[in-house]
């Protein structure tokens, strides 16, 4: 069984992230993971922190994916696959949404994406073939989004500094027949490798990860599960 992290932040883009590429790879190697998805924050605060100017012309996607690229560069030393992801926050609320399997053009204009909001983004990400999962929808300041705009819900988030009310997230996902995911929401030393998913197959890239999540052919790593 392959162990996959679905929710992780780097210090390069996520202002709240403490960990660089080498540290992340060492931690996840020690935890026995086979793949990790870098889901740095895609919000105004983090674009300011990373000094990405949203007012200049041209796509901002590759600048935003700096954390992913840095981990990808060192991944060969650690034999861990690295997938590109994002954790989007629109200007309209404090909700966060994990995005998998997207093409560059979808996130090229962050100012427009964040300003337009979830309802406008939903048909765009679906046309792109991407997958959108609401992260920790019952955490403080968050509210569950209308199910028609979502593919899934993160039903197990084990960031130790937040109460994500995972029981409520699970109930919401079941009620609306949404894809269920789990992530460590790693930001700092000690956050790594607490959950994720187990799969018989190891996706080649983020598009493959999105397909795996759609298939349902995986199990969630529970805190008590230390062995495959």
TrEMBL record:
<dbReference type="InterPro" id="IPR004013">
    <property type="entry name" value="PHP_dom"/>
</dbReference>
<dbReference type="InterPro" id="IPR052018">
    <property type="entry name" value="PHP_domain"/>
</dbReference>
<protein>
    <recommendedName>
        <fullName>PHP domain-containing protein</fullName>
    </recommendedName>
</protein>
<dbReference type="Pfam" id="PF13263">
    <property type="entry name" value="PHP_C"/>
</dbReference>
<dbReference type="InterPro" id="IPR016195">
    <property type="entry name" value="Pol/histidinol_Pase-like"/>
</dbReference>
<dbReference type="Pfam" id="PF02811">
    <property type="entry name" value="PHP"/>
</dbReference>
<feature type="domain" description="PHP">
    <location>
        <begin position="6"/>
        <end position="124"/>
    </location>
</feature>
